[in-house]
Amino acid sequence: MGKLNNKVALVTGASKGIGAAIAKHLAAEGAKVVVNYASDKEGAEKVVKAVTDNGGTAIAVQANVANEADVNRLFDETKNAFGGLDVLINNAGIYQYEPIEQVSANSFHQQFNINVWGSILTIQASLKLFGEKGGNIINVSSAASKMPMTTGSVYSASKAALDAITVALSKELGARNIRINSLLPGSTDTEGTHTSGVMGSDFEKVLVANTPLGRMGQPEDIAKVAAFLASDDSAWITGELLAASGGIYGF
Amino acid sequence: MSVSKTVALVTGGSRGLGRDIALRLAAQGTAVIITYNTRREEALEVVEQIKQTGVHAVALQLSTEHTAAFPEFFATLADILHADFQTDRFDYLINNAGIGLHMAFENTTEAQFDLLLNVLFKGVYFFTQQALHYLRDGGAIVNLSSRLAQSGVPGYSAYASMKGAVETLTRYQAKELGPRRIRVNAVAPGPTATDFGGGIVKDNAQFRANVTALTALGRVGEAEDIGGVVAFLCSDAARWVTAQRIEVSGGMNI
Known about the structure:
In chain A, 46% of the residues lie in helices and 15% in strands. By secondary structure, chain A is an alpha/beta fold. In chain B, helix 5 (157-177) links the parallel strand 5 (135-144) and strand 6 (183-189).
């Protein structure tokens, strides 16, 4: 018995990293989970297998969240599989750290297309699936929204845009009993931070030294907070920006 | 009586938010020590209600206004931890006790200001300082703030300033207690139907209507909306959450 029994949750970008941890944790709390992926089918199927091996229910659905036709298909398949939707977790995102001189139209539009426009598309689609009792949206933002770092101008701007959407929509959708909050992970030990070379670098030491709890975050640390925001324990919280960062970002 | 693995200390636990916080902590198996200032009977009712669920609870008198009484309070607390819980440490401190004052800035007296300062800020500061000797490494502190600390409503300049100070204190505590893996967060309720402010949110229909119109989720807050958030912060689920201010207000649509 979990806190999310009888709920249906859709997690975008859930084939690895934080998204995969969220999908698995929500399923462990009783939710039926749609594991969305853009290209890593194998990763998504591993997540589904981990969920079903644990006695849970999950399906993997391919969709690029920045593509409207893909998003419509993603939500159609969600409806066909589970009949509706209770929780949308906008986790799919990309980042590109580069000096301002190197920022191109291409890198700008890629980051804003997936991080911002993709979230708008999934939110629009979710409104058609949320039932009369309302809905719940969690935008996975980043501590980089509130504390942008050098060479992260565009990425931070995209997450700050997402946070502004969170606050605006909390007011716009509250009357329909739809809650929406941002979850801001700090530096997290994922495939992404390994690939980008953060893990094991001097920069990792700087991050840890500036984190009151004195370590890098783990995907499960973030997933636990996502489950709280998805549950009725947070029923009176909307329009909030909640960091799960070990304190590297203080409010 | 079940043996709880964790113990929480909730100040001002006889009614309102503190009562709901105590009940929610107990519901997840945490034993609870609540304090009351004057309402002993109501505090004992909360204790009885918790004990009936098989979780241990104790009520102690405390006035957070009087720092001189804190050493004796903690001596008593240490005795109770030893006798009732077979430990010398507790896990969670919830600084909830407080009083309200609605008074225009230009009419607020120095005596009113000092009372709020002592109860809401100086008391919290030094009570927590002394509590650190008994708080387990890896535990958590939750400081109750208020929506009012961030957004102005006429008549709460002194109250809201003290809560703003508590929020700043929260940030510093999170930094300084991080090496002990003690997490520190603030919870900021919006207008909630309790006895706060003479029960204006609970009892005044016009005020309720005004608050409802400004609340995204379309009603006023109830005490039961808050306890679950504090219980989350006092659990492993929040092991990576520190230095945060969480507003629990249903979203203020302004």
